[in-house]
Structure formats: structure tokens, C-alpha cells
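A.,

Following up on our hallway conversation. C-alpha cells first:
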């Protein structure tokens, strides 16, 4: 006789007090549990190296504002700006070639045909290609 031969013919136990739980609810009890909410985000955050924001001189601000006013829809520009990550407003400086669409005066943003808008205050350099 093998170890479980004595129970192999028994009928599956069913409680007389509680109804049988549907499979979908049974699966839920094995779902992942996050005991430390936000822990994974904090670990990811700790691995990043961020740039300090640069405060531009008045001459450079005037140069950038002049470039904004002279840009035409469809212009290719090389733009350097501070791209933030998450809610902590930390980020890095990025230089990209983008295709200009328009300036959104109300939200103080540059809108592009090929990507997300950029806040005007985050721009540190603009060169028309």
C-alpha cells in the first residue's frame, strides 16, 4: 500500500456551513501583496543621478525669448531643456532636435509636432537648424 491509497477513493470535502468559493475569488487570495506601498518607487528613485537646475542670466533669457518669437511652425530646432521625473521635480538636462508647432502663451509651454510640450521656464538653449 502506498502512502495515500487509503484516501484516494474519498469524496472531496465540502463544508456544510460555508458555500463553495468561486474560482475567481479563490485566485484573489494568491494575488501579490505590497506590504510597503511606494517602496519600489523609492528604490527606483534612489538609483537616479539628477542635474541641478541652472539659473540663466538676463541676456541668455532675452536671447531665448527672442528665439521663441522668431520660430515658425514646422521649424526644426535644437533645444536644451530640464526634463523632470515624477512628482519630485528632479530631472536632467536633455538636448533634442524637435519640430516646432506653436507657443502656448496661457500655459507658457512650447508645443511640438513630434513630442510632449516643454515648459518655457525649463529651456536653457534654442538653436534653429
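Then the amino acids I'd put at each of the 129 positions:
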Amino acid at each position: 500500500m502506498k502512502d495515500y491509497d487509503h484516501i484516494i477513493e474519498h469524496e472531496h470535502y465540502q463544508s456544510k456551513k460555508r458555500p463553495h468559493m468561486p474560482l475567481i475569488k479563490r485566485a484573489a487570495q494568491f494575488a501579490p501583496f505590497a506590504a510597503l506601498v511606494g517602496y519600489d518607487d523609492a528604490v527606483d528613485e534612489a538609483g537616479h543621478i539628477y542635474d541641478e537646475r541652472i539659473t540663466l542670466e538676463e541676456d541668455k533669457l532675452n536671447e531665448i525669448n527672442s528665439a521663441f518669437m522668431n520660430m515658425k511652425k514646422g521649424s526644426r530646432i535644437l533645444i536644451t531643456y530640464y526634463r523632470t521625473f515624477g512628482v519630485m521635480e528632479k530631472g536632467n538636462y536633455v538636448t533634442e532636435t524637435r519640430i516646432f508647432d506653436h507657443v502656448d502663451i496661457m500655459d507658457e509651454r512650447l508645443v511640438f509636432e513630434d513630442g510632449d510640450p516643454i515648459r518655457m521656464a525649463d529651456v536653457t538653449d534654442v538653436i534653429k537648424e
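Residues 58-128 form a domain with the SH3 type barrels. fold (CATH 2.30.30). Curious whether your intuition agrees with the design.

B.
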